[in-house]
Amino acid sequence: RYGWDVEYQEFAYLGRSLCNVMGTKGEGPLIIIGAHFDTRPVADRDPDDRAAAVPGANDGASGTAVLLELARVLDESATDQAKIMLAFFDGEDRGELNGWPWCVGSSYMAANLEEEPEYALVVDMVGDADQEIFYEWSSSLWLQEKVWGIADDLGYGTVFRPEHRYVIEDDHTSFLQQGIDAAVIIDFDYR
Question: 55-87 burial, b if ≥16 CB within 10 A, otherwise e?
């Protein structure tokens, strides 16, 4: 209802049916903004109940919520000079379970792009009540500098901290492996 062209990218991995969802709007160079919508099926790192389901309010839902809000607010002023693709990835959060790697959906998408994007920006785990978002070492530095600079200009310099903290394999990695500039916005310090 917000004017996005929606496509479904169905594929299979290790006997499971998966589906990436993409919404595209605008004209010009392609920019991908992505997040995974799946959640880890078991809490394998929980010291009390490793078989419990993972609610996914932060890891899965928070990035998805950001993309859904972008779908609502990005109007022609944002899409008159660029084609924006909001990419919802499936199969990110099964890494190291039953032989699965991390980031299956974004890897599939990055390897099967019909048009090469200028860059990809991934949002993951941004639902922390005490946010501190640092540079991630493998991300494209110029893209981090651009996003963190915009955040600072908007008054979020205490949240977006321009210092390196982590190396994280996340959905941005799939695009980096294809030679596409990419970065991740992630708050990896949370309880």
Answer: ebebbbbbbbbbbbebbeebeeeebeebbbbbb
Burial of 37 (0-12, 13-18, 19+ CB in 10 A): buried
Count CB-CB contacts under 10 A for residue 15. 5
Average pLDDT, integer, range 7-26:
97
What is the rounded CA–CA span in Å between residue 84 and residue 22? 10
Q: How far apart are CA 165 and CA 184, in angstroms?
A: 12
Phi/psi at 149 (5° precision): -65, -40
Give the tens place of pLDDT for each residue, 131-149.
999 999 999 999 999 999 9
Residue 72 corresponds to which tokens in the numbers above? Answer: 């609502």
Report yes or no on whether pTM surpasses 0.90: yes
Residue 122 forms beta bridges with which residues?
Answer: 34, 184
